[in-house]
Amino acid sequence: MKKYKIAVIQLNLNDVAKNNLEKCLHWVKKAAEKGAEVISLPELYSSHYFCQSEDVDNFALAEPLYSTSFKAFSALAKELGVVIIVPFFEKRMAGIYHNSAYIIDTDGTEAGLYRKMHIPDDPHFYEKFYFTPGDLGFINSPTKKGNIGTLICWDQWYPEAARLTALKGSEVLFYPTAIGWHPQEKEQYGVNQYNAWMNVMKGHAVANGIYVAAANRIGLEKYLPDTAGIEFWGASFIAGPQGEILAQASHDKEEILIAEVDLDLQENVRQNWPFFRDRRIDAFGDITKRAID
């Protein structure tokens, strides 16, 4: 296919798993009705963002592979004939959990499974307590609509992740995301934080001649007493292969963004800006070192 339509869904997900599942199924249907053929939900769609604290009770939110989320969205993908990216909290076994995403093809089968590779540990983003780093590497998922690359949130800051996924043949990089402001810091740092987030992913689009789609959540999630919570900043977007913004969401509304992937345009951009051709792979060996001392 030379062209296909992609969508990211921006939602408030500060609810229980059953309600979030029903909500996301409804919004995926709405996106398909608008013509979307590949649809991504935000990170950890089924619950509030529980990583604001280190609490073993939150492991009860995880689900085994191919259980509730897979069954529901597999059936929906097959019914609608669309590809769905479903980010979820994976229970691999007792004591091993991942921040993962299914890539479900139009016939309801699994086109790919991605496990988040980069795991943050920041104030109220205590993900290292919950998630084992991914061990499946950076993947391209061939689907009946196109070649889909999926990375998750903190991965979005790493050019190496975008590059390796693009080199495997992905036409689009999807970034299911849960990122927001600490309310007490928003006035001083908020603009720069948000702009950095946008700019780094637009840079990945340019450097790789690739489409980039980020699906964030919205809303103030303040489930812990005596804390300010996290104000998720929304602003989901889709960018083209020169970093141009094709669709942009608000900071505070539930929305569906849709844009067209044009593979002829992508090829033209890569022919005129041949960054892949000119890479000095003979000189990049030190990139695998922690530091060059």
TrEMBL record:
SUPFAM superfamilies linked to this entry: Carbon-nitrogen hydrolase
GO BP annotation list: putrescine biosynthetic process from arginine
Domain CN hydrolase: 4-263
UniProt superkingdom: Bacteria
Nucleotide-binding recorded as keyword: no
PROSITE patterns: CN_HYDROLASE (PS50263)
GO terms of molecular function: acyltransferase activity; N-carbamoylputrescine amidase activity
Keyword annotations of the record: Acyltransferase, Hydrolase, Transferase
Pfam families, alphabetized: CN_hydrolase (PF00795)
TM segment ranges: none
Entry keyword annotation includes Hydrolase: yes
Stated name of the protein: Acyltransferase
Organism: Polaribacter glomeratus
Lineage summary: Bacteria, Pseudomonadati, Bacteroidota, Flavobacteriia, Flavobacteriales
